[in-house]
Amino acid sequence: MNATQLSQLAQSFDLETWSANGLAEIEASLNQWIPPNAPANLTESMKYAVLGGGKRLRALLVLGAFEAGIAHQDQSELAWRREAALRFACAVELIHAYSLVHDDMPCMDNDVLRRGKPTVHVQFGEAVALLTGDTLQALAFEVLTPEHSLIPAQLQAKLCGLLARAAGHNGMAGGQAIDLKSVGKHLNEVELSHMHKLKTGALLEVSVSAGALCSGVTDTALASLKIFGSSLGLAFQVVDDILDVTAESAVLGKTAGKDADTDKPTYVSLMGLDAAKHKADVLLVQANQALFDSDLSHTNALVAIALKVVNRSF
Amino acid sequence: MNATQLSQLAQSFDLETWSANGLAEIEASLNQWIPPNAPANLTESMKYAVLGGGKRLRALLVLGAFEAGIAHQDQSELAWRREAALRFACAVELIHAYSLVHDDMPCMDNDVLRRGKPTVHVQFGEAVALLTGDTLQALAFEVLTPEHSLIPAQLQAKLCGLLARAAGHNGMAGGQAIDLKSVGKHLNEVELSHMHKLKTGALLEVSVSAGALCSGVTDTALASLKIFGSSLGLAFQVVDDILDVTAESAVLGKTAGKDADTDKPTYVSLMGLDAAKHKADVLLVQANQALFDSDLSHTNALVAIALKVVNRSF
Asked: Beta-strand (E) ranges in chain A?
């Protein structure tokens, strides 16, 4: 089966049911790992920031990559491998949630609306928003290092390292710093792609890699899945730029036209709407080819997620 | 030798030379671990926030606890054990540095002066300050998870878990949240101590525990060292409150009288200056007793650090 046939097959995959099952598990776990009695009103603000509303693309990528890899493994290790994947899925969502809280703050993007609700600093004040983000980042590493668990220490340490690198200077936070300095500047396509590779790509890519790692795939398959993750990450951003121009705020759940208003460089401003759409399609083909190259057979969920990203319900 | 004699002995310990050697190593390591080519001006802002100026109490506690424990160990493991301690010493300083950057921001303490220099948001702007703190927190976990190192994965995972828990909702960030809600409120001594146990105590205590853990001490000795760490942590805060009333801004390197001005509860406002001084002395005795109880013999550096905290050059 080639990459195109793979894609056709995935269109018959029931992503809705698969996602609903995954989401139920992710939401329950996140709810369990947010401490119920954190000081002051941190429990309330963390729950507000994390629960109810996210589409959980990153977490679903972890679970999708895990499923692709685990089918080929010794099933006796299934329990701790699955626990590790679920913990990483939640950890990456905690990092993503913290980044949204901080990015929305007045000194950054100054957004008042997120998923159709007031942003955390509007709801709880700026100081609490700052602390909520800080706490969520620390919580992600707590979730990855359970004190009583069968997850081997080697995997725990590896997952911490992967997440820290994807979240930090050479990942999400670094990309955000480039974004901040790029407002009103002309970036060429290489520079724009580099920014997005860090800002959103790193976390999407690590979701795929970590899920695969938890499942115990070969290095060769892991390398292919990384390419899938990076292609998908870039596609996600191109589609985001397209939607910023074409969609309504109500559909986005955030303020539309924001990037254009603040004179941020986007794929649409760089190459025009049609070329941006074409680029998203090319990236989808690349992503599917990488899955095909992985030689893994249970990749239906990943293909279906990629398709949904480009046709954009994520 | 009892705890009092221990304390007398430590007065003859050359803390200055010991600290200077430790500091040189810590500064060199921190300098090495701040990425030289981080995006935008993050390298510059991270260096500004982290290097040059800190007294490195937390890092020195890690090294002091490590030295107390390592004397009793198999010396063949010295190299990786020492590397682990040094990495933790730097990681805890990165967490401390990020917390100062965020705490100084206008939405929190709104401080413009830190260690006699403009605070990070004054120097680089609020958005960069926010990102710098976020990046430093992630960097701490990068430093603890080296990809090529003899440090066992089990120790790496344990150190990540300890640091995450000391930095998060049940540690530093949680304490800061309580502090934020306590302005203008009356706290009793139990409530005030709980706040400080989280806000500053958790990071000081984990510095001692992690240093000891890297050295490979017994659980019994570790338990005593934890008591040393928590007593010292509280003593540190009591002395901080005393100095806020009695010292000049130039000596503190930050704005004096700030807590009284902003109507924050302090040990001095709660119990008066003399009683606060007495409390600090009692905590010092407790800390020394715990070291005595640990049965470790090379505790000179820790005793000398504790004495210096209470006589306050730290």
From this structure: 113-114, 117-118
* Alpha carbons B312 and B301: distance in angstroms, whole number: 16
Number of Cβ within a 10 Å radius of residue B24: 10
pLDDT tens-digit readout, B146-178: 999 999 999 999 999 999 999 999 999 999 999
* A190 C-beta neighbours (distance < 10 Å), count: 8
Question: Using an 8 Å Cβ cutoff, are A256 and A244 in contact?
Answer: yes
- Please enumerate in sequence order all residues whose Cβ is within 8 A of that of A257, keeping only pairs 6 or more positions apart, or say none: A244, A245
Q: Give the helix/strand (H/E) hosting B184.
A: none
List C-alpha distances in Å: A60 to A207, A243, A301, B12, B283: 8, 22, 9, 60, 50
Contact B170 A105 (CB under 8 A): no
Contacts of B139 (CB under 8 A, 6+ apart): A164, A168, A169, B33, B34, B35, B46, B94
Angstrom distance (rounded) from CA B209 to CA B219: 10
Question: Coil, strand or helix: which one is A232?
Answer: helix
| Predicted confidence (pLDDT) at residue B311 exceeds the cutoff of 70 | yes
Domain count, chain A: 1
Q: What is the DSSP letter of A198?
A: I
The CATH number linked to B235 is 1.10.600.10
C-alpha closest to that of B208 among B193, B196, B223, B192: B223
**Token pair of A20, please?**
């609903």
Phi-psi region of A312 (alpha: psi -120 to 50; beta: other; left: phi over 0): left
Chain A residues touching B92 at Cβ < 8 A: none
The per-residue pLDDT for range B56-98, each reduced to its tens digit, is 999 999 999 999 999 877 778 999 999 999 999 999 999 999 9
Structure tokens at B24: 């040189």
All residues of chain A having their beta carbon less than 8 Å from the beta carbon of residue B105 are: 130
Percent of chain B with pLDDT over 90: 77
Q: How far is A139 from chain B (nearest CA, A)?
A: 6
Containing A123, the helix (H) or strand (E) segment is helix A120-124
The answer to whether A171 and A198 have CB atoms below 8 angstroms apart is yes
ipTM: 0.93
pLDDT tier at A200 (50, 70, 90 boundaries)?
very high
Task: Dig out the tokens for A130 from the structure.
Answer: 């700052």
- Give the Cα separation of B128 and B38 in Å (integer): 13
Nearest to B145 among A38, A160, A175 (CB): A160
Contact A15, A67 (CB under 8 A): no
- Closest residue in A to B199 (Cα–Cα): A39
For residue A176, the chain B residue with the least C-alpha distance is B131
Cα–Cα distance measured from residue B185 to residue B175, given in angstroms and rounded to the nearest whole number: 15
Distance CA B37, CA B42 (A): 8
Q: Which domain holds residue B73?
A: 3-311
DSSP letter at B218?
-
Calculate how close chain B gets to A14, using CA atoms only, in Å. 37
| Residue B114: strand pairing partners | B117
The pLDDT value recorded for residue B96 is 98
The percentage of chain A sitting over the pLDDT mark of 90, rounded to a whole number, equals 78
What would the pLDDT profile of A151-192 be if each residue is shown by its tens digit?
A: 999 999 999 999 999 999 999 999 999 999 988 888 899 999
Give yes or no for A284 touching B (CB within 8 A).
no
